[in-house]
């Protein structure tokens, strides 16, 4: 059976936030995965630069997105979603931060689903479950080859209340439960990758300090060895790993490495 991949990114989720959030699903998932709680994102540790590095597999110096404002690349090439579409496979993105819409070229995604995060803490967490409902329905009905689910409220809670505060940890526990619902319905051909774009400290991020740069990376599924703590991972390894799972030819631009041999 052809292998498929779901990538879930929880914006601003620190690895120690996973351990302290009071919900054990993600730490249990890490224990049955190839995982790292000391993986590194790229600098600047800012949402759009980090996502562009994830989708294009290169450092910000190469893609040129250094802030949350999008502009076209000077020497353009395929994003992960573009590459999947080039192979006539089905790529989809479900997200709640609008700036992510430019990561893939118009026409590359079979489904693109955006909803806003409500201002209220409780409503924001409920809305991430609604986005998860739509994601689960889509996986059931359309069986995409590659689906990217972005959950943005954890970062908003970090800015509003502070990283590692109670509301921030509640947002992680809530995202953890959303991811549990996806894992429980996933057909056997799927692997599940869970990560973050950056961490945070006080009420911000963007610096080179370890709290901002360190991210979790969890690779669960039949192709990945269970119970392995991986060393030296970076966010640049995600595109090559998803591509090798889907048996797509790697792009010469990529600066990371696949976890699969
Ligand atoms: Zn932020």
Outline the structure in words.
This protein is an alpha/beta fold and 261 residues long. It has a single domain (4-245), classed as Alkaline Phosphatase, subunit A (3-Layer(aba) Sandwich). 37% of the residues lie in helices and 17% in strands. It has helices at 15-20, 25-31, 47-56, 60-63, 80-86, 121-142, 153-161, 166-185, 210-213, 238-245, and strands spanning 4-10, 34-40, 91-95, 111-114, 146-151, 190-195, 214-220, 228-229. The protein has an eight-stranded mixed sheet, with helices on both faces. Helix 6 runs parallel beside helix 8 (166-185) and helix 7 (153-161) runs antiparallel to helix 8. It is globular. The model has no long low-confidence stretch (mean pLDDT 97). Zinc ion is lined by residues 12, 47, 155, 159, 205.
Task: Jot down its keywords.
261 residues; alpha/beta; Alkaline Phosphatase, subunit A; eight-stranded mixed sheet; 10 helices; 8 strands; 17% strand; binds zinc ion
Briefly characterize the structure.
By secondary structure, this protein is an alpha/beta fold. The protein is 37% helix and 17% strand. The chain has helices spanning 15-20, 25-31, 47-56, 60-63, 80-86, 121-142, 153-161, 166-185, 210-213, 238-245, and strands at residues 4-10, 34-40, 91-95, 111-114, 146-151, 190-195, 214-220, 228-229.
